[in-house]
Amino acid sequence: MTDLSHIRNFSIIAHIDHGKSTLADRLIHLCGGLSDREMQEQVLDSMDIERERGITIKSQTVRLDYTAKDGKTYQLNLMDTPGHVDFAYEVSRSLAACEGSLLVVDSTQGVEAQTLANVYQAIENNHEIIPVLNKADLPASEPERIQQQIEDVIGIDASGAVLVSAKTGLNCDEVLEAIVTTLPAPTGDRDAPLKALIVDSWYDPYLGVMILVRIVDGTMKRGMKVTFMNTQTEHQIDQVGCFRPKMEKLAELAPGEVGYFTAAIKSVADAAVGDTVTETKKPATTALAGFKPSTPVVWCGLFPVDAADFEDLRDALGKLHLNDASFHFEPESSAALGFGFRCGFLGLLHLEIIQERLEREYNLDLITTSPSVVYKLHMNSGDLQELHNPADMPDVTKIDFIEEPWIKATIMVPDEYLGPVLQLCTERRGEQIELTYVGARAMAVYRLPLNEIVFDFYDRLKSCSRGYASFDYEVDEYRESDLVKVSILVNAEPVDALAFIAHRGQSESRARQVCSRLKDLIPRQLFKIPIQGAIGGKVIARETISAMRKDVTAKCYGGDITRKKKLLEKQKAGKKKMRQFGKVEIPQSAFIAALKMGDD
């Protein structure tokens, strides 16, 4: 049993690619968590998709034993967190289970937008913060300038910042000493009733639901009967343990420790993240505060290509929701695509990752409808409705006004690329709040409609700044806006899966974009097919797919021209009749390609 004063719980926070996972590797190696043979790069990024993309998606925990210079052995519980804005919910949960943070800043690039967002989350959780300047071995490293920048931009003392190179291992032992000497020990009462916070949970095919907990008070042992305070379900614990980073069974988990337990839980809904676990015989009186529920900002429909996979998709979404509480789903149906789910995400990367995980881990073929944000409809009757799916928009005459979500975006960009970035924000109906300079870098704060960000804003921002701009946002408020629903009609039949909502000023160009894309995707028929974009009854864009034509005059050689005319007139009459009764089947591949509208 470890003395409370010898435990340190900390997370590693940083902007994307500043070296969090590499630093975690070094610390694991230094503490002997894994032997040289078992070590690999980014050892905590265990999912295939994380290793391929080189990003962290899930927070991972690992327990390390470190013997400090004073001769005492400390238990370090490390949490490696993601850097992307779409996984900010993962970061917030990890921070709630810790008392301190290592703030990793790239000493060649300095403070970025996501560095700020993560630091403010840590400060909100009353964390002690240790600045760590990474990549000190590179010739472009400027530690003095970056230390000053941390003090100017974030406002924390960086004079004691540790200069390291996570790749070569330079000074990484200094980081461990700083953790032991600077960070506070957790508090907790061993004799009080058990109180444990569920930080994460995931599904294991052999053990059922596995639950990661931070023990606040009391102890957790094998065989103990526990109650989940929110759902009021009872379970008997099969095993408790920790990750070093391999699973290791323990006799008990004591206050201040982070570890996992299993209890043969089959139902995914029972283990809600943020719930409090207590002992059934001697329950705690009050639950822990838990986490703020996450609010999805982007919604889209997920439909199985094969309708028979619907139940498998429901099952897979349930298991993934357990592992990632920040995405939401509800059933929906569509005339074109059958039964599926309307899912809410924290951003487009989040959507892409969930879709890829469903396809890889559960072998599902999916169609994703075009992403949209949540609009608030104020009806003439005084009711307020939330609109997740453009196809469900009620009659315009019943709506008084529509509000759309706006975000507050922080963009950090080198001075020479500022012009194109400001132009991009203005094009997207942005309003500048402030523009300040930190050395040679500008920090622009803008209010922007979320609808304009969802598609390709991030890609455009990266390309107009040659990849140097960094971007972070938070949802700010809802504002009244002149929005319209654009329907797409193929052969005069509306296709609900392609409908979208846009600002009136940009509706025409967006409709033209979709129509011209569909023109190239839908196969030609024996009759003309009109593709139209319409607002209500007014057509604002049109393309026509010309008919395939059989050469009916091939058998006429020589003779009078009237013979040919007669045959052509007969063909024309047949085509007219065919156009009245003809049905256009839009192939699934055309749907998928048309919905990737933001790629242009």
From TrEMBL:
GO MF terms listed in the record are: GTP binding; GTPase activity; guanosine tetraphosphate binding; ribosome binding; translation elongation factor activity
PROSITE patterns in UniProt: G_TR_1, G_TR_2
* Main location as per UniProt: membrane
Places the protein is found: Cell membrane
| Enzyme Commission no | 3.6.5.n1
Q: What membrane topology is annotated for this entry?
A: Peripheral membrane protein
- The yes or no answer to whether the keyword GTP-binding is present is yes
Using the record's annotation, list all stretches that form the Tr-type G domain.
5-187
The processes (GO biological process) annotated in the record are: positive regulation of translation
| Catalytic activity line of the entry | GTP + H2O = GDP + phosphate + H(+)
Cellular component per GO? plasma membrane
Q: Does the keyword rRNA-binding apply?
A: no
What keywords appear on the UniProt entry?
Cell membrane, Elongation factor, GTP-binding, Hydrolase, Membrane, Nucleotide-binding, Protein biosynthesis
Instruction: List residues binding GTP.
Output: D17, H18, G19, K20, S21, T22, N134, K135, A136, D137
Spell out the Pfam families in the cross-references: EFG_C, GTP_EFTU, GTP_EFTU_D2, LepA_C
Q: Which sequence ranges are marked TM in the entry? A: none
Which family is it part of?
Answer: Belongs to the GTP-binding elongation factor family. LepA subfamily.
Q: Mind telling me which PANTHER family this protein's record contains?
A: TRANSLATION FACTOR GUF1 HOMOLOG, CHLOROPLASTIC, TRANSLATION FACTOR GUF1-RELATED
Q: What does the function comment of this entry state?
A: Required for accurate and efficient protein synthesis under certain stress conditions. May act as a fidelity factor of the translation reaction, by catalyzing a one-codon backward translocation of tRNAs on improperly translocated ribosomes. Back-translocation proceeds from a post-translocation (POST) complex to a pre-translocation (PRE) complex, thus giving elongation factor G a second chance to translocate the tRNAs correctly. Binds to ribosomes in a GTP-dependent manner.
Q: What is this protein called?
A: Elongation factor 4
Give the organism the record lists: Terasakiella brassicae
Task: List the gene name.
Answer: lepA
